UniProtKB/TrEMBL annotation:
<protein>
    <submittedName>
        <fullName>D-xylose reductase</fullName>
        <ecNumber>1.1.1.307</ecNumber>
    </submittedName>
</protein>
<keyword id="KW-0560">Oxidoreductase</keyword>
Length: 320
């Protein structure tokens, strides 16, 4: 089983369904990546901030060494953390992350947040997180344009095959269009029926920028972080509308939520520790939702965002 692909604006093909590495434990990460490859996953979405890139790379190496896949069969994604936005820090940290993965290039490298923080040397703390020291947040003077041009240098040198942005609002997408030599290939956003962001999706489509959804199950992704907003929100996986549609198609609520995105051309990156769910999450392009079903799911929109710095007690209101 393999996911269909979408063609990016630079001609690269990106799988529509991938495996997200956020919150994957270090002690299980290598095995989870290896097992996901055996199941049929080809896209793996990682990041410096996830703190598990070494282990993810071990899982990839094992699969390649055993002949399950070749490097060119995989689409490996990583992200530039906020502490490395200064123009002279972007390429060195990209190379470090490639070394952690054991790779020569990333298929896609993404600016994780439109936030520039003061540089923290990896020898001091890695990943550095949001805080410079203690609970102190110190911003860098790096502009998003400066950072983007440094990303373009990585692209032009072949360290990354595609470049992306994440957690950008519409005004920032329009802004990057003003100064980019190479338009972003992708935008990664929080996207689920409680946060549809259709205007932003339409804007990206008009520019040929592919959209990837993270946290496709809404509040469920944040319960283990003990986020009050997630605890106080009805679970999408248990929502009567989602369950009714799932029953009609003999699918799980998770499959319906993922299909709602993929049927609309939006890539998804769920994760699971369970082998059955791993296979189910990959098989979300083999059935069709009716137009009224898609519309009823979209109608659950509450403009409710979970993955905002302010929800973690970090006073950087980028979505204000």
């Amino acid at each position: 089983m393999a996911a269909p692909t979408i063609k990016l604006n630079n001609g690269q093909n990106m799988p529509l369904v991938g495996f997200g590495l956020w919150k994957v434990n270090n002690d299980t990460c290598a095995d989870q990546v290896y097992n996901a490859i055996k199941t049929g996953y080809r896209l793996f979405d990682g990041a410096c901030d996830y703190g598990n890139e070494v282990e993810a790379g071990q899982g990839v190496k094992r699969a390649i060494d055993e002949g399950l896949v070749k490097r060119e069969d995989l689409f490996i994604v990583s992200k530039l953390w906020n502490s490395f936005h200064d123009k002279d820090k972007v390429m060195p940290i990209c190379k470090k992350q490639l070394g952690d993965w054991g790779l020569d290039y990333f298929d896609l490298y993404i600016i994780h947040f439109p936030i520039a923080l003061k540089y923290v040397d990896p020898s001091v703390r890695y990943p550095p997180g949001f805080f410079y020291e203690g609970d102190k947040i110190v911003l860098s003077k790096a502009s998003l344009e400066e950072t983007y041009h440094a990303m373009e240098e990585c692209y032009e040198q072949g360290l990354i095959k595609s470049l992306g942005i994440s957690n950008y609002v519409g005004s920032l997408v329009l802004d990057v269009e003003r100064y980019a030599k190479h338009l972003p290939q992708t935008l990664q956003i929080e996207h689920h029926p409680y946060l549809v962001q259709q205007d932003l999706i339409d804007l990206c489509r008009s520019r040929g920028i592919a959209v990837t959804a993270y946290s496709s199950f809404g509040p469920s992704s944040f319960l283990e972080l003990d986020m009050k907003r997630a605890r106080d929100t009805p679970l999408l996986l248990e929502h009567p509308t989602i369950k009714s549609i799932a029953d009609k198609h003999s699918k799980t609520p998770a499959q319906v939520l993922l299909r709602w995105s993929t049927q609309r051309g939006i890539a998804v990156i769920p994760k699971s520790n369970n082998q059955d769910r791993l296979a189910q999450n990959l098989d979300v392009c083999s059935f069709e939702l009716a137009k009224d079903e898609v519309e009823s799911i979209s109608g659950l929109d509450k403009d409710l965002r979970f993955n905002s710095p302010t929800n973690y007690g970090i006073d950087i209101p980028i979505f204000a």
